[in-house]
Design goal:
The protein has one domain: Aminopeptidase. The chain is built from five helices and seven strands; from the N terminus they run E-H-H-H-E-E-E-H-E-H-E-E. Strands 1-2-3-4-5-7-6 form a seven-stranded mixed β-sheet, sandwiched between helices. The radius of gyration is 15 Å and the shape is globular. The chain binds coenzyme A (COA). The site of coenzyme A has 22 residues, from helix 2, strand 4, helix 4, strand 5 and helix 5.
């Protein structure tokens, strides 16, 4: 699975070590862990192992988890980030992160374009939602470039990634 500059690999605990160093930087955590409780490497391994198996206890029968590690094609081909989506049938939520060293190059945009093509194949007809801290302008610009529309937060479905005050965006299926 690939795009022009990137390879995509189903996320497993084997990705935890490389992603740990990316995840636990202040810039990456600023808007996704505002309380400053980053995971330990052991917690990350356990979390990724669980993600690779899907939800152990299904909250709803239609819940589906999708997780990919993003690897740069150019040698030494590091893992540079991850893509997430949880689908609940007609709607779902997405999340994404790249290590700070790879920001500002259009790589998140490239990865997310590929992600939406992938999700359209495995979960067709899903409206994808994202909840974003209002000061996370990089993420908001990315969502707008991807065709997401801002929606009043009162109209959101039950987004597990929503924190009070977040902006909500939705990309309807084409
Ligand atoms: C959100 C996040 C993924 C955005 O990454 P990003 O690199 O800014 O996003 P893009 O790939 O869209 O890159 C856009 C930038 O690359 C530039 N760029 C360079 N070449 C480009 C190309 N070929 N195509 C598109 N953009 C390009 C754009 O001009 C833009 O720069 P600007 O932001 O200074 O205007 C990243 O900031 C991140 O991981 N943050 C931490 C985790 C997080 O907050 N996740 C979101 C939670 S809701």
């Amino acid at each position: 699975m690939q795009s022009k500059n990137l390879h995509f690999e189903p996320l497993t605990d084997a990705h935890a070590d490389e992603l740990f160093s990316i995840l636990t930087t202040p810039a990456v955590l600023a808007f996704i862990d505002p309380n400053g409780n980053p995971p330990t490497i052991e917690e990350l391994r356990t979390e990724y192992a669980a993600r690779s198996h899907g939800p152990v206890v299904l909250a709803t029968p239609t819940e589906q988890w999708f997780n990919m590690a993003i690897r740069l094609k150019i040698p030494p081909s590091p893992v540079i980030g991850r893509l997430e989506a949880t689908g609940y049938g007609e709607w779902g939520e997405v999340a994404y992160l790249l290590g700070e060293a790879w920001w500002g190059k259009g790589l998140a945009f490239e990865a997310m374009l590929w992600w939406h093509d992938y999700l359209a194949a495995v979960a067709p007809g899903t409206a994808w939602w994202a909840a974003v801290h209002p000061l996370n302008q990089r993420s908001i610009r990315l969502l707008k470039r991807l065709g997401y529309k801002k929606v009043d937060a009162n109209q959101r479905p039950k987004l597990s990634s929503y924190d009070v005050g977040d902006c909500c965006f939705v990309r309807l299926p084409s």
